[in-house]
Amino acid sequence: MDMKAASHAALEIRNIMKDIEQSSREILTILQKIHNDGGLQEVSGICKQARNLLVPIQEGYAKLSEKIAHQMYYRYHDHWRFGTQRLTFLVALIIYLETGKLANREEVAVALGIKTERESGFHLDLEDYLSGLLQLSSELSRLAVNSVTYGDYARPLELSRFVTELNAGFRLLNLKNDNLRKRFDALKYDVKKIEEVVYDLTIRGLKPHSAPTPQGDKDI
Q1: Of 1, 140, 151, 217, which is the most buried if we count CB atoms within 10 A?
Q2: At what angle do helices 105-112 and 126-149 cross, to 10 degrees?
Q3: CB 161 within 8 A of CB 111
Q4: By C-alpha distance, which of 80, 60, 187 is closest to 133?
């Protein structure tokens, strides 16, 4: 591919990503409602609204898949890397809110309308998937704090279990990517932050005797 063709391809990719990222911002805005008083009582409707906005995102990735030849994926990867990581986080948050489970790579890829295997063409890169999961912990630590503010004292215990198990899963991985290692350090901070919320509930006598158990297993 000559320089002129490469420049044209990059421009087309940027234009497609603008539309994808616009939908991504709209999904984030919708999901932020969970932090409002009573937001978690409306979680079904919130997740439905968010999922509806995944349709134009799937269409955007379909356009990228048509334009990017299999062997050119990593040449242009930086154009969609961070947008895909953010969308992985958003899909993982939706799935957690719906099921209490950790979204696996295939579930995220299906939600975005892309593949999981490099050999299949346009796919969800493993490191992008892991980066998205690490962003999830920060949002859940914020939710733990806000839950207490609105009198939901059982929620932080559930979130603590989930994020602690997420942390344990990442500890089993040999993270060679510098950005992933830095994000993993932030995950450890999120674990500590939620533990402090639970401890505060305990010493104030507000910790429920029996907290709800998250649904399903949480495998990375």
Answers
A1: 140
A2: 90
A3: no
A4: 187
What is the DSSP code (8-state) at residue 39?
G
Provide the angle, in degrees to the nearest 10, between the axes of the packed helices 77-99 and 3-31: 20
Cα–Cα separations (whole angstroms), residue 80 to 20, 31, 125:
9, 22, 11
Q: Output the pTM of the full model.
A: 0.90
Amino acid in the structure at residue 84: T
At 11-65, the pLDDT tens digits run 999 999 999 999 999 999 999 999 999 999 999 999 999 999 999 999 999 999 9
Side-chain half-sphere CA neighbours of 98 within 13 A: 16
Above pLDDT 70, what percent of the chain? 94
What stretches of the chain show up as alpha helix (H) in DSSP? 3-31, 43-52, 54-67, 77-99, 105-112, 126-149, 155-171, 178-203
Enumerate domains of the chain plus CATH numbers: 3-203 (1.20.58.2140)
Look up residue 114 and give its two tokens.
């892309």
CB 53 within 8 A of CB 26: yes
Amino acid at 216: G
Residue 21 assigned to a binding site: no
CA atoms of 20 and 2, how far apart (whole Å) = 27
